[in-house]
C-alpha cells in the first residue's frame, strides 16, 4: 500500500471537514477524490501532504507513519490549483529548485540536475520555455511546469488539488487526457481532488466519492457510475430523474407502470426510482406499461438531443437524452404527448432518499 | 559674477565635504543598521513567542509615536544624566537607527505577509526547510514589493539627518548654518543646502528605480497567479 489513511478526523471550529475517513491507496494507482465543495476532499488531500494537521488519525506513506512529519520531509509532490510557481525564477529554476536545495550529500551535481530538469520539461512538452518566467506562460503551461516541479524531487506520491480547476474547458479536457497518459508513463501513485465527475471518470483508476466529510462510495469509475451505492452518489454523478414508487414482490410500481427489479433488498413499501436521462425509452404513440408525459422542450446539443417532459398534474420535469438520429426516427414533436419507460433504474427506499 | 553666486561657489567645497563625510555615511549606516533592526523586529512580530512579540510591538509603538528630534535630544542630552554618554555622531547614529528600525519593521512585516501562503506550501512540498523557503522564495519576492516603501524611508532619512546638526554633528546643514552665521547670507546658504539635499535624494531615487527594475525583471505584469 502506498498511502494508508487511518481514521482521519478534522474540524474547523464547528465544521466537520473530515469525518473518520479511512482509505488505502495502492501503488501506482491514480485515485480521484470526488465531491461537492465542502465535502472534505481538499482537506483530506492536504492532510495526506502534511499541509494541514489532522485532529486525530494517522497517515502512513509506504508503510511509514508520516503523521507527525513536516511536509518537506514526507516526500510528496503537490500540485496546487493556482499553480504556485515561484514567480521570481525562470521555468528552469522552478523545476531545478527542489534538487538544488537538497543536502550536499545527496545533491546531484550541476550537469545531472540540468539533464534531469530538461528531461522533465520534455516530459511535460515545455522544454522550449526553460528560460522564461512563469508570468510569460499560459495557465495550462504553468500547471504543466508545476507538475514537472513536483516530479523533480521524485516524490513517493503525487497529490494534485483541483489541478485543472482554474483552466478553461478546452484546455482542461486536453490536460486531463494528457495527465492520464503521463501517469501511465511514470506510474507514480497519485491522488487528485476534483468536483468534476467527468474529470474523475476520465482520468482515474479509482473514484472515491466524498460528501460531508465522509466517503460515500469507493470503486472503479464504472462501478461508481453504474452501481451507485446511494442516492447521493447517484445524483452527484450526472443528472437523474426520480419517480416515487411502490415496491412489492420484486417489482416497482410507478403510476400504474410495473417494472421488474433486478436488485434484491429494499423491501420497504415506498421508495424512489432513480433513472438517468439516457435510461429512458421514448415512444411517440401510446405504449402499454409506460408513463405518459408532455414533451415540453427539445434542445439539440451536437449529436445529442435533450428533452424535457412533464407528467400531467406534476411539477417535476423529466429529463431524457438520446442520439439525434434516434430522435428523428421516433418522430417526437415538441408540445405533443410522448410515452416513456425506463430500461435501467435503481430503487432506493424512502428512508435513504 | 553676482556676490551670491560667488558665495555659493566658494562655500560649495565645505558643504559638499560635510555632505560626503557626515550626511551620506550617517544616512547609509543608520539605514543599513535600521533595516537590519527592522527585519529582526518584523520576524519577531511574525514568528516569535508572545512575550517577544509584545516587546517588539512596544518598541515600534514608542519610536513611531514620539518625535525624532525628541528622541535625539534624549539620547544625546538626556542619557548623560544617568551616566550614558555618547559622542555626537554615535548618538545621532543610534537615534536614526532606532527610528528607521521602527518604521521599516512595519514595511518588512507587511511585505512578508503579502507573499501568498501557496508559495510557502510549494516550497515545503519540494523539500525546502523554513529558512530555505524564507531566504530563497519569500524574501526575493517580498523585496520587490518592499523597494518603493523602503525608498521612501530612505529618502526621508537623507533629509532627517539634518536634525543631527542640533547634536553638533558637522553635517551638511550645520556647515551651511555656520557659514550663514558668519556671512549673514542665510537665504543663499540655506538655498544651497536645500539644493544639495535635493541632489542627494535625486541620485538615491534613481537608485530606487534601478533596484525595482532588478527585482522586477520576472514580472511582465503585476498581480495575477503564478
From TrEMBL, chain A:
Ranges where the ABC transporter domain occurs: 3-237
Source organism (scientific name): Pokkaliibacter plantistimulans
Entry-linked Gene3D superfamilies: P-loop containing nucleotide triphosphate hydrolases
Keyword check for Cell membrane: yes
Name this protein carries in UniProt: ABC transporter domain-containing protein
Top-level taxon of origin: Bacteria
Keywords linked to the UniProt accession: ATP-binding, Cell membrane, Membrane, Nucleotide-binding, Sulfate transport, Translocase, Transport
TrEMBL record, chain B:
Coiled coil region boundaries: none
Membrane recorded as keyword: yes
Domain ABC transmembrane type-1: 16-208
UniProt GO molecular function: transmembrane transporter activity
Subcellular localization: Cell inner membrane; Cell membrane
GO biological process, one term: amino acid transport
Positions of transmembrane segments: 20-46, 58-79
Signal sequence bounds: none
A Pfam entry, by short name: BPD_transp_1
Keyword Transmembrane helix applies: yes
Membrane topology: Multi-pass membrane protein
Keyword tags: Amino-acid transport, Cell membrane, Membrane, Transmembrane, Transmembrane helix, Transport
A GO cellular-component term linked to this record: ATP-binding cassette (ABC) transporter complex
Domain of life: Bacteria
NCBIfam families tied to this protein: HEQRo_perm_3TM
Family designation: Belongs to the binding-protein-dependent transport system permease family. HisMQ subfamily.
PANTHER family noted in UniProt: L-CYSTINE TRANSPORT SYSTEM PERMEASE PROTEIN TCYL, MEMBRANE COMPONENT OF AMINO ACID ABC TRANSPORTER
Name used for this protein in its record: Cysteine ABC transporter permease
Species this protein is from: Proteobacteria bacterium 228
